[in-house]
Amino acid sequence: GAGVSQSPSNKVTEKGKDVELRCDPISGHTALYWYRQRLGQGLEFLIYFQGNSAPDKSGLPSDRFSAERTGESVSTLTIQRTQQEDSAVYLCASSRVGEKLLFGSGTQLSVL
Amino acid sequence: GENVEQHPSTLSVQEGDSAVIKCTYSDSASNYFPWYKQELGKGPQLIIDIRSNVGEKKDQRIAVTLNKTAKHFSLHITETQPEDSAVYFCAAASTLTFGKGTMLLVSP
Questions:
Q1: Best mutation site among A9, A32, A45 for testing chain B: the one with the most B CBs within 10 Å?
Q2: B76-107 confidence digits (pLDDT tens)
Q3: Which segments within A10-61 are labelled E, that is strand?
Q4: Is the Cβ–Cβ distance between B100 and A42 less than 8 Å?
Q5: For residue B98, which residues of chain A lie inside 8 Å, CB to CB?
Q6: Across the A/B interface, how many CB contacts are shorter than 8 Å?
Q7: Buried-exposed string B45-75: b where 16+ CB fall within 10 A, e elsewhere
Q8: Which residues of A touch chain B, with CB atoms under 8 Å apart?
Q9: Which of A53, A89, A101, A105 should one mutate to test binding to chain B, selecting the residue with the greatest count of B CBs within 10 A?
Q10: What contacts A42, CB < 8 A, 6 or more positions away?
Q11: Would you call B69 helix, strand, or coil by DSSP?
Q12: Is the dihedral of CA A77, A83, A86, A87 positive or negative?
């Protein structure tokens, strides 16, 4: 595709359920990033992949959060036992190494 | 790690005026500084970036300046238009630490 694709665009879940958020980066982009954006707030770094390894996981807020990436392709962000404070937009971005990040439109997660 | 401060949090200007948004960073090793524009319901879009080997970069009505000694960089928008209204984010460092954003409102 032409850009970074994220799915679903919206997800409503009940507190305590697990959710999976998907990111399809631009073909050829070896770097992939996940960010969280709470309502009216800035972008909070979660995790960075270079290929399928994650040299920087420093932003993951708790052990309920995990992420995987298959090769230099799709990435999945999993949130286990969701809490209301997990409600936010989760943004994915990809880039070639050392080049600009291009963002997807995000997944709006609402935990009831 | 990197820490990025962005000011102001909101900025209201009249159409045709200039707008300036400023950011400071903490890690002197940071060498890449992009600016993103985010419209409601969309992901951030890169509008301009600068690397540490230059002090200024311009693209039509948008310019970015960088002062590495003082560790601050600024976004300048001239001849603002209503469609410039959005949230603007600065960022620094390799994994891109973002500022908290500036909501720019341009009144016709």
A1: A45
A2: 999 999 999 999 999 987 667 889 899 999 99
A3: 10-13, 19-24, 31-37, 44-50, 53-56
A4: yes
A5: 35, 42-45
A6: 44
A7: ebbbbbeeeeeeeeeeebbbbbeeeeebbbb
A8: 4, 33, 35, 41-45, 48, 56, 58, 91, 93, 98, 100-106
A9: A101
A10: B6, B89, B98, B99, B100, B101
A11: coil
A12: positive
Length of chain A: 112
Q: What is the pLDDT of residues A29-49, one digit of tens each?
A: 999 999 999 987 888 889 989
Residue B18 and residue B11 in contact, taking contact as beta carbons nearer than 8 Å: no
User: Shortest Cα distance from B85 to chain A (angstroms)?
Assistant: 15
How does pLDDT run across B10-60, given as a tens digit for each residue? 999 999 999 999 999 998 888 889 999 999 888 889 999 998 888 999 999
Q: Beta strands A75-79 and A19-24: pairing type?
A: antiparallel
Query: Helix or strand or coil: residue B82?
Result: helix
